[in-house]
Amino acid sequence: MKQTPDSLTPLLRGIGRFDFIALSINITIGAGILGLHAKLYALIGVWSLLAYVVSATVVTLIILCFAEVSSRFSATGGPYLYARVAFGPLIGFEVGWLFWLSRMAAFASICNLFVSYAALFRPQLATGWERASLMTGLVVGVAAINYMGVQRSARVNTVFTISKLLVIGLFALVGLFFVDTVAFTFPKFPDYTSFSQAVLLIIFTFSGFDVAAIPAGEVQQPQRTVPLSLLVSIGTVAVLFISVQFVCIGTLPDL
């Protein structure tokens, strides 16, 4: 299988293995973890824990495919590059544009969720120019971090990732001491529509691993680093998400 030589895309390989693992985890743990747990509980109650296991299994199978394919490439492009090499430029073009559109939509939804939470502290952020200004600031801020260069932006991302893991992990760990086991009474298994909807919502929160494979041309030893990072990130995120859902069910009666 041929690929685009690195000489055609002379990028700085400034992302080390630890920074890339942090990048993969940070992309996967998005804003979904803040807004999803109550939605899942409303759909299927305690069975949401099983939905997480099912979703993690499905996503892991997909990630294994990505890990296998990414081990054969060292250039930038991710899914676009894989599709172009395997099926030609037309399919690669279609995959690239569809991928771009899906990420734009996902980014827009995350921006909206961020603003919705910020509006709890300042109601004026819910509408009008303040809402638009905050969203613009988010986009400009992310762009500025990337403009600093690959090594510096990777370090900033690692700091964000560690902070995120510490805060969410502390919430799950402390919450375990306050869990009420009575809350874990499993009712009748939910209908197919509700359960499948919950699984699809969780799969969305696990998405991001496909994005992590894109900057392989800026990663040190990408054919080893990318597959390892994908597997470590899904394992870390799955354990963290299930732990948070468990704590939320056991400590919040009106979740």
From TrEMBL:
It comes from the Bacteria. Keywords: Cell membrane, Membrane, Transmembrane, Transmembrane helix. Pfam families: AA_permease_2. It is a multi-pass membrane protein. Its main location: membrane. It is found in: Cell membrane. InterPro entries: AA/rel_permease1, APC_superfamily. The chain crosses the membrane at residues 20-38, 44-69, 81-99, 105-121, 133-150, 162-186, 198-216, 228-252. Belongs to the amino acid-polyamine-organocation (APC) superfamily. Basic amino acid/polyamine antiporter (APA) (TC 2.A.3.2) family. PANTHER family: AMINO ACID TRANSPORTER-RELATED, ARGININE_AGMATINE ANTIPORTER. Major component of the acid-resistance (AR) system allowing enteric pathogens to survive the acidic environment in the stomach. Exchanges extracellular arginine for its intracellular decarboxylation product agmatine (Agm) thereby expelling intracellular protons. Probably undergoes several conformational states in order to translocate the substrate across the membrane; keeps the substrate accessible to only 1 side of the membrane at a time by opening and closing 3 membrane-internal gates. This is Arginine/agmatine antiporter. The lineage of its organism: Bacteria, Pseudomonadati, Bacteroidota, Cytophagia, Cytophagales.
